Structure formats: C-alpha cells, structure tokens
Amino acid sequence: MCAIAASWPTSVSISRLGDYLYGEPYGDVAWLAVRAWDAAHTAFARAGREATDSNAMRDDYAEAECLLRTGWEP
Questions:
Q1: Residue predicted with more confidence, 9 or 67
Q2: Residue 41 backbone phi and psi in degrees, to 5
Q3: In a domain, 9, yes or no
Q4: Residue 26: which region, alpha, beta or left (left: phi > 0; alpha: psi -120 to 50)?
Q5: Confidence band of 26 (pLDDT split at 50, 70, 90)
Q6: What is the pTM of this model?
Q7: Average pLDDT over residues 57-68
Q8: Where would a tag sit more exposed on the chain, N or C end, judged by fewer CB atoms within 10 A?
Q9: Contacts of 20 (CB under 8 A, 6+ apart)
Q10: Helix 28-46 vs helix 14-22: angle between axes, to the nearest 10 degrees?
Q11: 11: in domain
C-alpha cells in the first residue's frame, strides 16, 4: 500500500487508496500503512523540513515502505 501511494501521480490517502483498490474502507493493511506513514512523517517534520506538500507526502510513503520492509512495527 505504501509503495503504491509513493508512486501514485497525485497525493492520495491510504484509506482512499484501499477503498479504490480493494473495496476496503479502512482495513488492517491501511491501518498499518497509516501508522508507518505517520512515523515517517513525524521524523521528516522533526528534521525541520517542510512536510505538507504532495511531494513530501509521497516521500513519507516511500519512507514508510522502507520502515515496513525492515521490520518496523507500531
């Protein structure tokens, strides 16, 4: 889910993406993706970087994918 959101041409929320792709308004996969995105976003913002535009959101999703692939858990 995070990889899809990171490569989507426009910024998209995981819950909307989950609904669009799987018909799930907010499932376990979306919940985990949102938690990973939030962790990545928080780290990005704490570093003093602007974290509100579409590119920053996609960067957060890419970072969230990396977190999940390396065993991060909420």
A1: 67
A2: -65, -40
A3: yes
A4: beta
A5: low
A6: 0.73
A7: 88
A8: C
A9: none
A10: 150
A11: yes
For residue 46 the two structure tokens come to 């704490």
- pLDDT for the residue numbered 51: 64
The whole-angstrom separation of Cα 26 and Cα 22 is: 10
Q: Where are the alpha helices (DSSP H) in the chain?
A: 2-7, 14-22, 28-46, 54-69
Are 7 and 27 in contact by the 8 Å Cβ rule? The answer is no
Structural domain that includes position 53: 2-69
Nearest CA among 20, 16, 12 for reference residue 61: 12
How many domains are there within the chain?
1
Tokens encoding 57: 């959101």
How high is the pLDDT of residue 70?
93
